[in-house]
Amino acid sequence: MESNGVDEQMKLVEGAAGYVLEDVPHFSDYIHDLPTYPNPLQSNPAYSVVRQYFVDEDDTVPQKIVVHKDTPRGTHFRRAGPRQKVYFKPADVRACIVTCGGLCPGLNTVIREIVCGLHFMYGVTEVIGVDCGFRGFYSKNTVTLTPKVVSDIHKRGGTILGTSRGGHETSKIVDNIQDREINQVYIIGGDGTQKGASAIYKEIRRRGLKVAVAGIPKTIDNDIPVIDKSFGFDTAVEEAQRAINAAHVEATSVENGIGLVKLMGRYSGFIAMYATLASRDVDCCLIPESPFYLEGKGGLYEFIAKRLRENGHMVIVIAEGAGQDLLAESIEQQDASGNKLLKDVGLWMSIKIKEYFAKQSKMDITLKYIDPTYMIRAIPANASDNVYSTLLAQSAVHGAMAGYTGFISGLVNGRHTYIPLNRITERQNKVVITDRMWARMLSSTNQPSFMNPPKGTTELAD
Ligand SMILES: Nc1ncnc2c1ncn2[C@@H]1O[C@H](COP(=O)(O)OP(=O)(O)OP(=O)(O)O)[C@@H](O)[C@H]1O
Ligand SMILES: O=P(O)(O)OC[C@H]1O[C@](O)(CO)[C@@H](O)[C@@H]1O
Ligand SMILES: [Mg+2]
């Protein structure tokens, strides 16, 4: 295999039969003659007995696992896990952890397992937590993190470090990293955060510092590409069921009852789609990727009337980013990170539906609007997300100790991998409405496809 490095962000290795490894940066790419040390896990009583515990340097994971006999082998990512050699003496490591962006179940588990992984697997004792996101590097104090401090934080929602949006000033952050003599930076956050991590990595590399930057992607919206799913997503979907159940109970307890539930999902409707598929009680699921309209043939009002005539009740799930184009207010607002601030489509829709049926006077409806938005992300991770978060954190620790940098720890086709930061920040993951999953969802609800809005439909311009 021959290295074909394109620039510091694209490190491609090509092999026979169209094999491509999208490799992650390593200290040795820009600092020469660094000493290495045997991995302390070799003498760890828990791990020393494991056969083949260390990952073979040549192990890679394919991005596409469905292939045809003549297709090229395609893109691969480096397999995560401990290496025989490490690039840090444990006593020299000074690590820091920061959490940014919105909350997500599992954040505390990731923090806990970075601290415990460094401590128990590698004998690293100096770990600090940065208070309240990126801006905490230069405007806040740090907290000392030990296994004792983090021992039961995985049972709590939120992040013990605090989080924030905005406030990313790359050179001030890197100055601070240098001043504090930090040499491993663990950055937990969504797409915005990982763009910030990428900027920090580039500046560190420009200054020629031996500082590893490891990202752990976090997003309940599941909007980060390449990875199978984000930690916390399953917990959020599970919690969303409780709101949908309540909406169903309310709707079935009255004549012509409608339960309307708004779920998170700014640009991607994964939570709404999976919660709908899981529940089987939902009659209509509306997401940002699939435009809809209210009036006329094939519209939402017509469908609601039909379902109420057939079943006497219905449940609608709407992702917060759906139908934003239909709302009247026009001034677009942004949060501190530059994300679009959404209008409350759930409240708007509940008013529109009530007004429509009141005007029609053919059917008396009772609509209950449930907005569990923050409840689905402010809870602790469920069991499977706890295990998943633990493995992501441990992979990040193994990668940083092995001298990798500018990478995220992510699951690809069920295998833990290291993915270059630029690969996950170049686009957002979205529900593809021409894929089978959306078709499965449509066939479970039997809702209209909203593909053919009648000409002159007022809601489209309303
Ligand atoms: N392009 C960028 N370059 C540098 N920093 C960025 C960039 N975009 C966002 N950030 C920083 O990353 C942090 C988090 O970003 P943001 O608020 O968008 O959340 P996020 O990580 O995308 O998580 P969520 O999915 O919850 O929105 C903020 O401090 C923000 O300033
Ligand atoms: O109100 P906040 O915390 O700024 O964030 C809300 C956004 O964060 C997310 O939960 C993503 O983390 C989105 O679903 C939501 O739009
Ligand atoms: Mg984001």
From TrEMBL:
Phosphofructokinase domain segment(s): 95-398
Needed cofactors: Mg(2+)
Binding-site residues for Mg(2+), renumbered to this chain: D191
EC category: transferase
A GO cellular component entry from the record: cytosol
Site (Important for substrate specificity): G192
Positions of ATP binding: G102, R165, G166, G190, D191, G192, T193
Binding residues for substrate: T219, I220, D221, M264, G265, R266, E320, Y374, M375, I376, R377
Main location: cytoplasm
GO terms for MF: 6-phosphofructokinase activity; ATP binding; metal ion binding
InterPro entries (UniProt xref): ATP_PFK, PFKA, Phosphofructokinase_dom, PKF_sf, PyroP-dep_PFK_TP0108
Biological or metabolic pathway of the protein: Carbohydrate degradation; glycolysis; D-glyceraldehyde 3-phosphate and glycerone phosphate from D-glucose: step 3/4
List of catalytic residues: D221 (proton acceptor)
Lineage top rank: taxon: Eukaryota
Pfam families: PFK
Keyword set, alphabetical order: Allosteric enzyme, ATP-binding, Cytoplasm, Glycolysis, Kinase, Magnesium, Metal-binding, Nucleotide-binding, Transferase
Reaction(s) catalysed by this chain's protein: beta-D-fructose 6-phosphate + ATP = beta-D-fructose 1,6-bisphosphate + ADP + H(+)
EC number per UniProt: 2.7.1.11
PANTHER family given in the database record: ATP-DEPENDENT 6-PHOSPHOFRUCTOKINASE 1
HAMAP family in the record: Phosphofructokinase_II_X
Function recorded in the entry: Catalyzes the phosphorylation of D-fructose 6-phosphate to fructose 1,6-bisphosphate by ATP, the first committing step of glycolysis.
Family according to the record: Belongs to the phosphofructokinase type A (PFKA) family. PPi-dependent PFK group II subfamily. Atypical ATP-dependent clade 'X' sub-subfamily.
Name this polypeptide is given: ATP-dependent 6-phosphofructokinase
